[in-house]
Amino acid sequence: MGSAKQEIGASQIFGLVAMGFGTFVVATDFVALSVALPTIEKSFSADVTTSQWIVTGYALVFGIFIVTGGRLADMFGRRRVFFIGMTTFALFSLIGGLSEDIWVILIARAIMGIGGALMWPAILGITFSLLPEDRMSLGGSLIMGAAGFGNAAGPLLGGGLSEFLSWRWVFFMNIPVALVAMIVTYLVVQSDTPEDIDERVDYPGIVTLSLGLFGLLLLLDIGADLGWFSSIILMMLAGSLVMLALFFYIERRSGMDALVPNEVMSNSKFISAAVSTLLMSSIYFAPILYLPQFMVKSLGYSPLDAGIGMLPVMATFALVSLVAGSAYDRLGAKMIVSLGALCLGVGVLMVSQTLAPANYMSLVPGMVILGAGIGIFYSSITTAGITALDPSRASLAGAIVYMFQVAGGAIGMGLNTAIVVSAPTFTIGIERAFLVDAVLALGGLIICLSLVDGPMTRETLFPWLNKKPENSGSTDD
Fold first, then answer.
1. Taking residues 430-454, what's their average pLDDT?
2. Among residues 193, 184, 192, 191, which one has the least CA distance to residue 10?
3. Distance, CA of 198 to CA of 217 (rounded, Å)
4. Which of 205, 249, 382, 417 has the lowest tally of Cβ within 10 angstroms?
């Protein structure tokens, strides 16, 4: 008979709740502002190209600095870095909400991206540090569950606040949630700031990685507009590859001071989790972006109605994330991650086949399966990636996995956008893009089955078949 799992104490529960609030702030903010963009455009008489950078600029800065944020959290204390990141995020939310100039909002959003990049890996590190060793699978479930609820609530909050109050309240709503998260964290999460810091900040690594990621993510964002083989895009690609190659050269010579130490780069279990995230994230972001647009442009929905229309995806994502931890314990990383990849592929394929004729209810089954795939895959791959490394690297591990998620999303969005804009109609373009995504999901599933660590046997899949009948107590004569 297996030993009972360790109990989680009251202070740990309150700490996990605080991390949930922090996750909710980050997840809600991103999607809520996406819905509020048309109202902001009208308020400042701005064009769509400028206003899109309210979302794109934040995502770009977040993706660039998140690995640095993870390394700093592990070096200087996750609690301290969490406070710095959350304070930065809340302060510039206030500045963005009070702004009377679109450019002030853009600058505030960029600095909020830095705050988010510090806060997110610290949240991941604190969450896993609060859990007993035999309950680690709960970490990914709790974080992605909170993120799912934030993503589900974001469009409703963004659309509702913009329609009935003001778009400014989309910024302001971050502040009270951030304050609650910081107060609870201060009261229940113990300081983990090291007394003696043996490692030094790897400034050359930070600069080269940031420049390489900036060029790569930016060209993926603007490539469809400028042309993928234009001289500017090719020059940006060459410059990004040079910076990334220089980064890997610097890291090999930096030893334990490296931004990404060799023990991380050489860990096959961690690398497989990162590669799987990269491939599957190229599928995840496209439906999240294009399904609301389809509802508005083809079904005639308002932005608020489109936000409500995304609930089958987002609510399923949140609910499934919360229960995925127990399945992770029973099935292991390989099986549960592969199941998530399969659901992602099947879901996006079903949606692609039900876009025409336009009928919302026909989309719902595919959206539910898609949401289940997101919840299963991301909660499990986050746990697999973080637990593959030493606990002292938890924030860095979470940051790198998320960086691959951002990079995969950027690649997928560039590919999907190129397909959509080249199609004769918007609906046909989405159909073609989602079919390509389904094929990519098949490739991602093969990678998960091949690389992700863990058993995949009959005993794992059907544990009840292995139970031996109870001994009746009789003995042979």
1. 81
2. 184
3. 33
4. 249
Q: How many Å apart are CA 259 and CA 274, to the nearest integer?
A: 17
Distance CA 55, CA 401 (A): 21
* CA distance to 128, 312, 348, 367, 408, per residue, from 433 (Å): 37, 21, 10, 16, 15
pTM of the model: 0.76
Q: Which pair of tokens denotes residue 319?
A: 């609910």
- Report the pLDDT value the prediction gives residue 462, as an integer from 0 to 100: 47
Q: How far is residue 416's CA from residue 331's CA, in Å, rounded to a whole number?
A: 33
Residue 467 DSSP code = P
Whose structure tokens read 């993510």? 217
DSSP 353: T
How far apart CA 347 and CA 365 sit, in angstroms, is: 8
Q: Dihedral sign, CA of 115, 118, 124, 125?
A: negative
Q: Can you tell me the mean pLDDT for 271-299?
A: 79
CA distances from 186 to 11, 118, 148, 193 (A): 11, 17, 25, 13
Q: Is 466 exposed, middle or buried (0-12, 13-18, 19+ CB in 10 A)?
A: exposed
For residues 389-425, one letter each, b for 16 or more C-beta atoms within 10 angstroms of the residue's C-beta and e for the rest, the string is: beeebbbbbbbbbbbbbbbbbbbbbbbbbebbeeeee
**DSSP one-letter code for 464:** G
Whole-angstrom distance, CA of residue 115 vs CA of residue 113: 5
Question: Cα separation of 376 and 364, whole Å?
Answer: 18
Q: What is the mean pLDDT of residues 103-112?
A: 89
Residues 371, 319: Cα–Cα separation, whole Å: 9
Q: Would the CA dihedral through 21, 169, 292, 213 be positive or negative?
A: negative
Q: State how far the Cα of 34 lies from the Cα of 37, in Å rounded to an integer.
A: 6
CB atoms within 10 A of CB 342: 20
3-state DSSP assignment of residue 154: helix
Q: CA 182, CA 87: separation in Å to the nearest integer?
A: 9
What is the distance between the alpha carbons of residues 352 and 420, in angstroms, rounded to a whole number?
13
Q: Looking at the predicted structure, is the pLDDT value of residue 468 above 70?
A: no
Query: What is the C-alpha to C-alpha distance for residues 25 and 290, in angstroms, rounded to an integer?
Result: 23
pLDDT in tens, 350-363: 988 887 776 788 88
What is the pLDDT, as a whole number, of residue 456? 56
List the structure tokens of 163: 């329609």
